[in-house]
Amino acid sequence: MAAAALSPALDLSDLRDYAFDWALVDVETSGLVARRDRVLSIAVVTIGRDGAQTGEFSTLLNPGCDPGPVHVHGLTAERLRGAPSFEQVAEQLGALLRDRVLVAHNAQFDYDFLAHEFARARTYLPVSQRLCTLALNRQVDLPVEDMKLGTLAAHYGVAQTQAHDALDDTRVLSGIFRATLREAARLGLPLPLVACPPRQDSQFAPKPPKTPCAYRNPGRLQPGGPLLQGMKIAITGETATSRAELVTRSVAAGLNMVSSVSRHTSALVTNDSTSGSAKARRAIAEGVPVIDEPAFLGLLAGVQSGALHQAPTPEAAAPAPTAVVPAPRPSEPDKAASTDKPLTGQRVLVLGGTHADAVVARSRIVELGGSAAVNLSCSVTDVVVLAGGEYDRRRRRIADLGLPLHDENWLSAPTAVRGDEDEAADEQRDEQRDEQKDEQEDEQKDEQKSAAVRPPAPRVLPRGGVIDLPAPPSGTPAPPWHVTASWVPQDHSEIDVVAFALDEDEQVTFDEDFVFYGAPENPAGTVRLLTDGPAEQTITIDLASLPPASRKVVIAAAIDGEATFGDVGAVQVAAAPDDSAAALALATMDAATTERSLLLAEIYRRGSVWRFRAVGQGHDHGLGDLARGYGVAVDD
User: Whose CA is closest to 372, among 316, 331, 411?
Assistant: First the structure.
C-alpha cells in the first residue's frame, strides 16, 4: 500500500460547468470478465472541484487465485503474496470514492470489477455517477491514431513511464482528463455522465453460460406427431418429475428448453392448462400446443433427429488482415468507385433547417464523399447553415474555432461556391497564421510526424452500405467489435440501444440473446451493452466466440415514451475493432420521422467472412414489438 506526494494542482477553476469532485481510478485484473476474474491492483487519484489534487492511493491485492496474464500486468503470485485482500481495503476505498464521480479509461470495465469486488466483500460500491474518458475523447474526436491511453498521453504531452501499472496509469489519466475537459469546454460539449444505481449484492451478475441448442427450431409439435430435436419447449406449474431432471433429460435429447412462451414455442408442458399462469395464457393466445407431463415423457423417449444449425461454409475467403472490402450491392452501382468525391476526408456539420431539409443536406454530404457530423467536434472541417441555423447555440463556438461556414448552395458545387462568411473565415485564419507562424511551423512538424501513423479515415457508408470486416493477423486473437451509436443529447426522451443474436431463421435461440439495459450481457458473454453516456451506447460482439447458431447480430435503438426518431434527428453509428481503436466504418441515420424503433446496423456471416451493414430501417412500433418479431417472449 502506498501514498505518494500530491502532484501540482490541475487548474480547472475556469471550467465551472464541469465542477465536480472526481475520483480517477485504474485497476489491473486477472482477466476480462468481472463476474469471474479478480482485481490485482488498484490506484485512485482524487481531484477537487477546482482541479487541485486532494489525494492519491494505490495498493496491490491478493486475489487468492491465479493472477492471469502476467505478461500484460507483470503481477506474479509471488508479488501479490502478502498483499491485503480487497475486503481489507474496501472501507478505505469506499471513503475515497464516496460523493465523487468515478473517472476511468473505459469506465464501465473498472466500475463493473469494483462493483463485483465490493459485493464479494458484502458491501456496495458507493458511486452514483461515472465518466468514461474514452467516451469523452470520442466526443472531442481528436485527430489521433486511436484512443489508447498511451496515444492520448502523447497527444496531450503527458509523460507515461510504466504502462499497465495502476498508479502510473492513473497519474497519466489525470493529465489526459484535465486536457480533455479543456477541449470539451472549447467545443461546448456536455459531459457524458452515467448514473450508477447501487449494487448491494452479487445477484446482479449475469446468469451462468447457457449452451445454445445445436438444432434449428422445426416449428410446433403436430397432433400425434413426435418431438423433433430443436423444438422450443416450455414448462409451467407443478410436475411429478423434478423440473431440473425434466430439463436435463430434454436438453440431452436435443430439445431447446425455454423459460417463456412466444409464437415460436413448439409446445408447453403443464399438468394444469387452466391454471391461468402467464405461460398458459400466452400459449392459448398464440395457439401453442399444450401437453401434460405423461404425454411429454412418452414423446421424450422417442425424440427424432432434427436439422443442425448450418456451420459457416468457406464459400467466401476472408480478406487480408488489413483489407477493407466493400461488398457489392445487387442492382446498385458501387458509388465508392466514383472519382467525383470533392468532400472526401471532410466532416461536415449541418445547422438549422427543417428535419427534411437537414436529411437532404446530410445525404448530399455522404454522396460527395464526406461524413455528416452529429455534434461539433475537433474533426469537423466545414459547417453548412440552413434556414434558422444562424440562431444555433453553437455558432459562437464555431466562430471561435474559425470553421468555414457555407449556405445550402455550397453542397451543389462545394469546390466552387464560396460565401462571404467563408472568405471572412479565411481572412481570420490568415491573420492567425501570420501571428503564430513560428509556433505553427513547429506544430506542423509534429503533425507530419503523427500523420505517418494515423489510420485512414473511416469508410462512410450510406443506408444499406456493406463492408467486409478484416480478419485478424494469423495467430492473433480477434478483438471484440464495438458498434457505437451516438446522437444529440435529449432533454425529454431516453434512447435505448439493444442487440439481438439471431440464428439462420432470424430468431433468437433463447430469450437471453436479447441484450438491453435490463440484461446488458447475454449468458455466454459474447454480446454486451456498454452505456458510455446519455447520448452514446455501444454493443460489443466477440465474433470469435459466437456459437455456430448465431449467424447475425442486429443492433437497434428504441425510444421510451411518445417521442420519435424524427424528434431526435441524426444517429451516428461507428464500427471499430476494440474499444480504443479508430472507427473502420461510419454511417449517419437521419431519415426517420414517426418511427419509435430503428434498426441501426447488423454484423452477419457470409461464408467464413463477417460483414457490417448500415441498415437505417425504422418502425413505428416500440421495442416490445421489435423484440417479439425476433422471437423474444415479451410480457404485455
Answer: 411
